[in-house]
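Bug report (template v2)

What were you trying to do?
Predict the complex of my protein with protoporphyrin IX containing FE.

What happened?
Run completed; filing so the output is reviewed.

Input:
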Amino acid sequence: MKYSTSFRIWHWLNAIVILGLIGTVLLRKTFLSWRTNSELIMLELSKIDISITSEQAKVIAKAIRSGMWEWHYILGYALVALVFFRIYLYFKDNSKKESFSSLDMHKKAVRISYYIVYATILFMALSGFTMYFYESLGLAKETAHSIKEIHELVYNILLYFVPLHIIGVFVAENRDEKGIVSTMINGKS
Ligand code: HEM
Ligand code: HEM
């Protein structure tokens, strides 16, 4: 057994949660963008002779967005639980992974990309929760805003990692690592 059952469960739950979190961000920036929707609301209302200020339209557009964005926080809690799960696995897991020094150059690079992703996930969970609880933590709104800018910047690492990782395992599966995907499903190597 290469990957233990717990490790595989962690991998797939983590994949679902991260794809979900990225999904909420993409929706926030496109279909549910308050900028686009507040203009749309004003335009459509003006067609039926109702005029509202851009400030009022913004409030409505944000209200439409909020039910969806709630999922950023629900999945955010799930991510924190998965971070703890992964820390537990670091100490207690019996998956058989090759040591870093025994890997060839390519696999070393892949392994490094995983280390970067683990650090990224940890940072996103920490910064996300610091923002979420900024008032209880006694932080100023400006501080929370600065954290948000870094949170948003670091998000790009995941945005690139996810498609590259998926393309990477597809390529590996078709070249010299047949069964790499099923290993992450059935655990055998
Ligand atoms: C958002 C989605 C995903 C994230 C964040 C993610 C994350 C990771 C991480 C961190 C590892 C390294 C595990 C370790 O050895 O410590 C890994 C390995 C792996 N993942 Fe994913 N994964 C995602 C989606 C997927 C998908 C969709 C597939 C399949 C198509 C996949 C297949 C694999 C495979 C086969 C490995 C083992 C690769 C190897 O031996 O180098 N992952 N994944
Ligand atoms: C993989 C994990 C995560 C990713 C990729 C991610 C991504 C993002 C991005 C890109 C934004 C900026 C959205 C925008 O302004 O357009 C954002 C905002 C935010 N995220 Fe995350 N996030 C993650 C995890 C978390 C977690 C664990 C929490 C904790 C609850 C969290 C809480 C927040 C908060 C409070 C905001 C600011 C919302 C606002 O200003 O209205 N995030 N996130």
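What did the reviewer find?
The two ends are 7 Å apart (CA to CA). Helices lie at 5-29, 34-47, 54-92, 105-132, 141-174, 180-186.
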